[in-house]
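--- STAGE predict ---
source: upstream dedup step, 1 unique chain passed
mode: sequence only
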Amino acid sequence: MLNYTPPSLPHLSTSPSRVLGVAVGKVWGLYYCFFMDQVLLRQSIRLAAQVGFSRSGGPGGQNVNKVNTKVTLRLRLDDLAGLTEAEMNRLRETLSSRISAGDSGEAEIVIASSEERSQRTNLERGLSRLEALISIAARLPKLRRPTRPSRASREQRLQAKHIHGRKKQERQRPGPE
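--- STAGE serialize ---
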């Protein structure tokens, strides 16, 4: 297995003009609020991920037996940049089942990609999956503001209960009167 480790992250920098704003988005029907710097996060993932190549399994004939197309990405969580402390804690909590202890005992995420016949395509797919996994898992859920039911909704609920009760009453046999 060929291992490639990209250079360390010190040369990554954010310009002082970059202002991290609050963005609110909707993912899978849930509203999320996040402060993460997507550009810095993407750069740190691409630079800090340790890439390994191996032979892919499954059908494919001679290409499978000769070419190392399977890509395995290992990313130490301590090397991530662009996340706040709260987002990093949320990431560790959400992905606790996917986080394993690496060779040095530090927490890392491992993703493998072997869907395509091309090594480059598998590498890009693996990196994009890793980026999406981290950015979705790290987002902090928007706080719910408690509200009271409106008068119309209360009346509507009581009306529905009344109709349902009348329907059940009409199903009963008439008593001896």
